[in-house]
Design brief:
By secondary structure, the chain is an all-alpha fold. The chain is built from 4 helices and no strands. It has helices spanning 17-30, 35-45, 53-80, 85-111. It starts with 16 loop residues before the first helix and ends with a helix.
């Protein structure tokens, strides 16, 4: 007997029109054959991810600072023809500060697969 034939109970959930539109849009993008199957997959296999926006902003800020420093160094190198040890140390320090939160984020995302 197939699992589908055992499905004789209904689950009623109230949603707003905006929520229904989002559900249908995600269903359409999923490539699945039925909305019921999509909803079941989201219930049993989906993830709820809570992200701290402040941490993401901090990562973005660090990356922007590094990019800005590299651009300033590039301008200086192009105008003087010299690159300074302090400039390289500044970039390395910024990358080290950025690497730790990015590695943590990567670890958390990879945990979602299991």
């Amino acid at each position: 007997m197939k699992n589908e034939s055992k499905r004789n109970l209904y689950l009623k959930v109230r949603v707003s029109q905006e929520e229904m539109n989002a559900i249908k849009r995600k269903y359409k993008n999923s490539g699945m054959d039925s909305l019921s199957g999509f909803v079941r997959a989201m219930i049993f296999e989906g993830y709820i991810v809570q992200m701290d926006e402040n941490e993401l902003r901090q990562i973005h800020k660090l990356a922007s600072n590094i990019a800005n420093n590299i651009n300033q160094i590039a301008v200086r190198v192009n105008s003087t023809g010299n690159i300074y040890v302090d400039d390289i140390a500044e970039i390395k320090d910024g990358v080290n500060k950025l690497w730790q939160p990015l590695n943590f984020l990567k670890t958390k995302i990879l945990q979602l697969k299991h």
